[in-house]
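Field reference: sequence -> structure
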Amino acid sequence: MSAQHEEVPPPPPAAAAQLLAQLRADRRAERWVPAFEQDWARALDDTRRSYSLTPLHEVVRTWQLRVAAAPAVDAYLDSGRDETGFVDLDDVLGARR
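Structure field:
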């Protein structure tokens, strides 16, 4: 019987590492860092199965867009806009599973 080493995930590429550092410095870090790490882990699994780096690139690109959009979302929420006239998407589409 031979001992097997646990598989250690490779370190994230430079863009992902920079993005993760940026997420950790953000006020939303408590929610965003675990979500990013979960997306990254899923993409690593997909990459191992497909032998394609595309899933990793998609995670980085998606999170870069989220970070870039965050100031606009904050400004909208801080503007005190009244959303009482809007319909909840769940009311239109039904509950998501």
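Note: The first helix runs from residue 14 to 25.
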